[in-house]
Structure formats: C-alpha cells, structure tokens
Specification:
Organism: Kordiimonas sediminis
Bound molecules: nicotinamide-adenine-dinucleotide, SN-glycerol-3-phosphate
Low-confidence stretches: none
Distance between the termini: 44 Å
Shape: globular
Strand order of the largest sheet: 3-2-1-4-5-8-9-10
CATH class of the largest domain: Alpha Beta
Radius of gyration: 19 Å
Number of strands: 10
Helix content: 40-55%
Largest sheet: 8 strands, mixed
Strand content: 5-15%
Function: Catalyzes the reduction of the glycolytic intermediate dihydroxyacetone phosphate (DHAP) to sn-glycerol 3-phosphate (G3P), the key precursor for phospholipid synthesis.
Mean pLDDT: 97
EC number: 1.1.1.94
CATH topology of the largest domain: Rossmann fold
Number of helices: 16
Protein name: Glycerol-3-phosphate dehydrogenase [NAD(P)+]
CATH architecture of the largest domain: 3-Layer(aba) Sandwich
Main location: cytoplasm
CATH superfamily of the largest domain: NAD(P)-binding Rossmann-like Domain
C-alpha cells in the first residue's frame, strides 16, 4: 500500500489527500473541476473548496480516471448522491482487487441504500471499507490530531490500510461493522441541521444538549433497522461525529440549520454556498424510511417538515416540545 488515490476533490477529499501525503504515500487526487486540478498542481491550494490551506507540493491532482486507478487503494469522497454515477464512471479503469474506502456520509435518496450497498451493486468484486468519524476537513488538512473509525470485513486488509494511512495526528481505529460506521455519519448531518436551528432560534444550551442526546436515540433506532452494532453508534463514527458536527458552525449542516433558525430561506442559503450539506439530502430518505417502517424519529421529521414542507420553525418547535412524556429508553 504505497500509492493512494483520492476520488473527489472537495474539502474532505483534499484533506484526506494531505493525510495521505503526510503518511508518506504517493498520493494523487482526482478532481471533477479543471480549475481544481490546476490550482492544486500549480498553486498547491484548492481555491474552490479548501481555500487558504496550503497543500504539500508532493500532492498531485488529475482529471484522468486511469491515473487515479493506477494506485493501491482509493478513497471515495464524492457527495453521497453522486457516488453511484461516480463509481460507474471509474469502473472501466478500476482493477478488481483495488480496495475502495467510502469516506462520504449519506444514504442514496433514490434507493434508500447505504453507500456500501451502492458499491456492492456497481463494483461487486472490489473490497469495500468505510472511513468515518469526527473530522472537519480544514483541521485535518492543517495536520491537527483526529481519530476515526476504519471499518472493513477483512481484518487483515483493514489493518493494512490503517497502517498505510495512519499517523499520530490521523488515528484510524479498526472495526468490522461497515453498516454501523455509515449510519451515524449519515444521520448526524440531519441532527446537526436541527441543532443549528435550535442555536439560530437562541433556545439555549440546555435545549441543544437535549436535542443532541435525543438525536442519538434516533440514530440508535434507525441503526437497529439496518443491523448496525450499538457499540459502533456510540463510537467515533456515531456519537463522536454527532458531538462534533452539532457543536460548531464549522459544520456546513449545523451552520445551515443556524441560518434557517435565524430566518433565512433554503434558497438564500444555498445561493451563497458551493459546498455540500449532506443532511439536506439525507433527511428525505431517513424521513421516508422512518415513516414507512414506523421508527419514531421526531427530530428528523421536524427537520424534514421545515426544509421540505416549508413549515414554520416556531410552530414545528412547539409541536416537538408538546409531544407526550414517555420513558427515556
Ligand atoms: N468537509 C468535511 O469536513 C467532511 C468531513 C468528513 C466527511 N465529509 C463528507 O465528504 C463528502 C464530500 O464532501 P466535501 O466536504 O469534500 O465536499 P465539498 O462541499 O467541499 O465540495 C463539493 C464536492 O461536490 C462535488 N460535486 C459537485 N457537483 C457534483 C456533481 N454533479 N457530481 C459529482 N460531484 C459533484 C465537487 O466536485 C466537490 O468535490 C460528503 O459526503 C461529506 O459529508 C466531509
Ligand atoms: O461540515 P459538515 O456538516 O459536512 O460536517 C463535516 C464532517 O462530517 C464532520 O465530521
């Protein structure tokens, strides 16, 4: 495992590529936008998605699938809703034995499938792993310390990849629970929007803590349906990421919710951004699955109603608070 490919050069792909370079890997990042390829190669910065963070000149960018696929393992970092199309495009150039590591956080809205299920359909022969956890791209790119979950069904391969990309400031903890490693990262984005709304409405720190904790209960209930292990949901890729994302406006999801709580519309907010807020997509499918399967997810439902049905934030909050009292667990 000497050569790393990174598929997708948004903020997270770029940060992961810097981690690869720092780990001593010969790293190439594939970008969809020509201007990103040239800005990384010439100015050693991703001016479109990770501005003002200097990148190691050793990091090479390409727009060529064949160059990306001439590597020992590939991190997949496209937005979740574009993962299927992205991997389909990659497939003709991909060696069957190349391990693919899902680093995106979301559930495919059109099918309700986890990204590992999407890969099982599109590239069934490639080994698939998941890398997820509490990690803001800018901090990782600057080399600040973090810890993540690296999940894979083959413990030897998982260990091999952890050893290849791991370093003191980028610590992958291994797991066999590929499902659990994806559920927390996908749903915490929806809950971060909810927390942002609470912050934007100035409902206080107590409300925020209550929402994060009851949000975790929603992750647990949803995870059970997919067969996630509870321990994984309490780990870095679950609770850890929920805490991080709900705590800071560095999160695109949390800050989106905050702006909604402050009275802005989705149209206004999206007009000022070129980055992805996965929760605004994931909420559709989580809401729909929860409704279909009878899973109690009142916070997720509230986010859906506000974002997708245009319900008033004050009215929706009142309805949430007026729900009957029940046992905690
Ligand atoms: N940014 C972070 O701190 C962070 C951390 C962990 C995980 N993630 C996850 O990584 C994934 C990628 O997020 P990001 O922060 O790198 O993205 P970003 O918001 O920085 O950049 C947007 C990305 O979307 C791509 N894109 C836009 N339109 C597209 C299209 N039509 N088809 C394919 N790709 C398109 C762009 O090329 C770019 O790579 C997301 O699932 C996110 O949840 C992000
Ligand atoms: O900026 P966000 O909300 O996409 O969150 C980034 C990461 O997922 C945090 O772990």
């Amino acid at each position: 495992m000497k050569k790393l490919g990174v598929f997708g050069a948004g903020a997270w792909g770029t940060a992961l590529a810097t981690a690869g370079v720092r780990a001593g890997l010969d790293t190439v990042i594939w970008a969809r936008e020509e201007e990103v390829v040239s800005s990384i190669n010439q100015s050693h910065e991703n001016t479109l998605f990770l501005k003002d963070v200097p990148l190691d000149p050793a990091l090479k960018a390409t727009g060529d699938y064949a160059v990306l696929c001439d590597t020992d393992f590939i991190l997949l970092v496209t937005p979740a809703q574009h993962m299927r199309a992205g991997v389909e495009a990659l497939k003709p150039h991909l060696k069957k034995e190349t391990p693919l590591v899902i680093c995106s956080k979301g559930i495919e809205v059109s099918t309700g499938k986890l990204l590992s299920e999407v890969l099982a359909e599109t590239v069934p022969d490639n080994p698939v792993l998941v890398l997820s956890g509490p990690t803001f791209a800018a901090e990782v790119a600057k080399g600040l310390p973090c810890a993540l979950t690296l999940a894979g069904s083959d413990p030897v391969l998982t260990q091999e990849i952890a050893a290849a990309i791991g370093q003191p400031t980028f610590r992958p903890y291994q797991s066999a629970d590929i499902i659990g490693a994806q559920i927390g990262g996908a749903i915490k984005n929806v809950l971060a929007i909810a927390t942002g709304i609470v912050v934007g409405l100035k409902l206080g720190e107590n409300a925020k803590a209550a929402l994060i904790t009851r949000g975790l209960a929603e992750i647990m209930r949803f995870g059970e349906l997919f067969g996630a292990e509870r321990e994984s949901l309490m780990g870095l890729a679950g609770l850890g990421d929920l805490i991080l994302t709900c705590s800071s406006t560095q999160s695109r999801n949390m800050s989106l919710g905050k702006e909604i709580g402050e009275g802005k519309t989705m149209e206004d907010i999206m007009a000022t951004r070129n980055s992805v807020a996965e929760g605004a997509h994931t909420v559709d499918i989580v809401y729909s699955i929860a409704k279909d399967k009878g899973i109690d997810m009142p916070i997720t439902s509230a986010v859906y109603q506000i974002l997708k049905e245009g319900r008033d934030v004050f009215e929706t909050t009142d309805v949430l608070l007026a729900r009957p009292y029940k046992t905690e667990l």
